[in-house]
């Protein structure tokens, strides 16, 4: 078949037969399937899964612009435009949940972002002859990362309860008990503290890896030049970390508006909602517990757009401020 | 090199700080273990501060008898094993075709699946969609969606592309099918990256609280994390301790030991394998970081 087509095309070269291209295209498709059918069989279940679990839910996002009711379903529900979003902006709790999310995210970022860098720099200062000490410290520091959030929060409920270990110490030191759980003043320190406990060691991995890439000759040269330890940290270690730091900073800026659900949800109590109710927990309560699906979807959508905008903005700022004009993209 | 080896005041302070830091990481775990195995009397007198006082395993016996905890434990194991297996299967089925240059749709498919790294539908639309599939309250809702993670596919694909072409070509010349190449060449040579992914996914599912909370409401299906929340945060004794635990200090202390014992058996599998697999975790994070 293909030979005929090519001969035909050779006879009248200036008028290509549209059918010949079609045949050619079909032939190529046939060949592709004949040669690679096993690859198609392999990837088919993967495509189906991604469609069902990752893409089709995106279609359901339209309920953010609809007045969803269970009987009519996603498709049949009535369009209401931006009503759900406007409702959120007028919600008496709007200001509270946005403020709580940003404040919590801000403190988490400010406190838990730099600590892994400090920890990595300090570990880097451990003498070469004490490699075992360094490795053991590293291993121990990673451990909390593998403890479930629900376990950490559950233990905090035990440790910080009125007769828990922390209050036993408080009584020994100050003679009085502190009311920690269920207290609005303590929620943020507890939240940020648990993030730090869990994340410092694990977060340092990427910096430690970057530090192994700094040639030892640089340190030796700095010593020959009479650089003090602070100068070596300032002029050798930190510049070596800078590329990684700019990437991790861009990636963590969006965490300001995407405070994780699990920790806040588990640690909060109705008594502390004034500081602990964040966007994620509010979406869950309004959307799934009170069945206000459209409203919950709209708030969630709003949140992810803001998070996305923050990443773009952070990338822009990093690009403007560093010399190489390099960001994530 | 002499100055680099000599200890100065800064070094002593630094070492002291790192030791204190390590203690802060370990202390809560040690304390939990000590409470769970100490004598009941030492616990209710609040004299256990660091190491166990006395020794008893009654709390562990109590949770071994408690159907709810045992069932939750079994569920957690089942979800973890199934979810991890699904993830590895999906990774291999996707990564091999996507690494074959002769596969024409390689580019478009990678691009489309890659979008899932940046966009997600969010809590409510995802919930409603899974509900419409009839997946709520099934083990599939916990184990299947987690398997479709393009990030892991990228890692496996990157690893496959380091396998010499000649190996695959030689097998093909010998008449091996793609399935056979996948099973007998790709899988054996991808073991380290598959192990790393398996560890990450297994820990994530084992520790997951969010998805079971959303999608499961039948207590028969609850994993350990939901049980832990009920016991540790809600203070529900469930079937674990009979009678009203608040009656006496002793009963209250015993329930506390039970809670801590449950935490220990939850952490147990991770703590046991952790020293041996730690390096895979670290490698995995770094591969991810570099590729990202």
Automatic annotation (TrEMBL), chain A:
Topology in membrane: Multi-pass membrane protein
Transmembrane segments: 37-56, 102-122, 142-160, 190-212, 233-257, 293-318
Organism: Caldilineaceae bacterium SB0661_bin_32
Organism placement in taxonomy: Bacteria, Bacillati, Chloroflexota, Caldilineae, Caldilineales
GO biological process, one term: transmembrane transport
UniProt keyword annotation of Transmembrane helix present: yes
PROSITE patterns per UniProt: ABC_TM1 (PS50928)
The UniProt record lists the keyword Nucleus: no
Domain ABC transmembrane type-1 stretches: 98-314
Gene3D superfamilies: MetI-like (1.10.3720.10)
Protein's recorded name: Sugar ABC transporter permease
Location in or out of the cell: Cell membrane
Keywords, alphabetical: Cell membrane, Membrane, Transmembrane, Transmembrane helix, Transport
Gene Ontology CC: one annotated term: plasma membrane
Main location: membrane
CDD domains in UniProt: TM_PBP2
Family to which the UniProt record says this protein belongs: Belongs to the binding-protein-dependent transport system permease family.
InterPro entries: MetI-like (IPR000515), MetI-like_sf (IPR035906), UgpAE/MalFG_permease (IPR050809)
TrEMBL record, chain B:
Compartment annotation: Cell membrane
InterPro entries: MetI-like (IPR000515), MetI-like_sf (IPR035906)
Membrane topology: Multi-pass membrane protein
Cellular component GO terms held in the UniProt record: plasma membrane
Domain ABC transmembrane type-1: 73-276
Keywords: Cell membrane, Membrane, Transmembrane, Transmembrane helix, Transport
Main location: membrane
Pfam families for this protein: BPD_transp_1
Family: Belongs to the binding-protein-dependent transport system permease family.
Name of the protein this chain belongs to: Carbohydrate ABC transporter permease
């Amino acid at each position: 078949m293909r030979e005929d087509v090519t001969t035909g095309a050779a006879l009248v070269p200036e008028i290509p037969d549209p059918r010949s291209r079609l045949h050619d295209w079909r032939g190529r498709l046939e060949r592709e399937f004949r040669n690679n059918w096993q690859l198609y069989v392999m990837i088919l279940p993967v495509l189906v899964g991604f469609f069902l679990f990752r893409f089709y839910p995106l279609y359901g996002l339209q309920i953010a612009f609809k007045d969803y009711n269970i009987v009519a379903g996603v498709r049949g529900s009535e369009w209401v435009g931006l009503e759900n979003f406007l409702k959120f902006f007028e919600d008496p709790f709007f200001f509270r949940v946005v403020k709580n999310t940003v404040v919590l995210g801000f403190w988490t970022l400010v406190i838990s972002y730099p600590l892994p860098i400090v920890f990595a720099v300090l570990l880097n200062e451990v003498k070469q002859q004490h490699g075992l000490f360094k490795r053991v410290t590293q291993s121990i520091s990673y451990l909390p990362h593998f403890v479930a959030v629900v376990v950490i929060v559950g233990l905090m409920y035990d440790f910080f309860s009125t007769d828990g270990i922390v209050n036993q110490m408080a009584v020994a030191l100050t003679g009085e008990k502190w009311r920690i759980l269920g207290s609005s003043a303590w929620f943020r320190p507890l939240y940020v503290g648990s993030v730090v406990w869990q994340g410092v060691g694990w977060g340092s991995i990427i910096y430690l890896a970057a530090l192994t890439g700094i040639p030892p000759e640089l340190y030796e040269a700095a010593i020959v030049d009479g650089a003090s330890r602070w100068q070596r940290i300032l002029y050798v270690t930190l510049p070596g970390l800078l590329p990684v730091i700019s990437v991790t900073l861009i990636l963590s800026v969006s965490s300001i508006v995407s405070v994780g659900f699990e920790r806040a949800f588990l640690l909060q109590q109705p008594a502390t909602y004034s500081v602990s109710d964040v966007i994620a927990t509010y979406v869950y309560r309004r959307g799934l517990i009170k069945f206000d699906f459209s409203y919950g979807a709209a708030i969630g959508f709003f949140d992810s757009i803001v998070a996305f905008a923050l990443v773009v903005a952070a990338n822009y700022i990093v690009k403007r401020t560093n010399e190489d004009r390099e960001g994530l993209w | 090199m002499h100055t680099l080896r000599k200890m100065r005041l800064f070094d002593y302070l630094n070492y002291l700080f790192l030791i204190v830091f390590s203690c802060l990481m370990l202390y809560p775990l040690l304390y939990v273990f000590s409470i769970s195995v100490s004598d009941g009397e030492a616990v209710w007198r609040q004299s256990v501060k660091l190491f166990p006082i006395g020794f008893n395993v009654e709390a562990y016996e109590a949770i071994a008898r408690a159907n709810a905890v045992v069932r939750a434990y079994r569920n957690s194991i089942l979800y973890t094993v199934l979810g991890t297996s699904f993830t590895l299967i999906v990774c291999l089925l996707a990564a091999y075709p996507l690494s074959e240059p002769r596969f024409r749709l390689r580019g478009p498919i990678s691009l489309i699946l890659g979008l899932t790294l940046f966009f997600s539908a969010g809590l409510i639309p995802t919930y409603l969609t899974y509900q419409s599939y009839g997946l709520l309250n099934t083990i599939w809702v916990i184990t299947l969606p987690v398997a479709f993670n393009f990030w892991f596919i990228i890692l496996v694909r990157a690893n496959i592309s380091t396998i010499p072409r000649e190996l695959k070509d030689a097998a093909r010349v010998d008449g091996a099918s793609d399935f056979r190449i996948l099973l007998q060449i790709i899988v054996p040579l991808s073991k380290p990256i598959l192990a790393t992914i398996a560890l990450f996914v297994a820990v994530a599912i084992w520790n997951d609280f969010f998805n079971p909370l959303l999608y499961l409401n039948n207590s028969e299906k609850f994993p350990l994390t939901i049980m832990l929340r009920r016991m540790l945060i809600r203070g529900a004794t469930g079937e674990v301790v009979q009678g009203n635990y608040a009656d006496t200090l002793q009963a209250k202390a015993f329930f506390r030991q039970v809670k801590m014992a449950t935490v220990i058996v939850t952490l147990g599998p991770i703590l046991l394998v952790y020293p041996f697999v730690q390096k895979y975790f670290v490698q995995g994070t770094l591969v991810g970081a570099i590729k990202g």
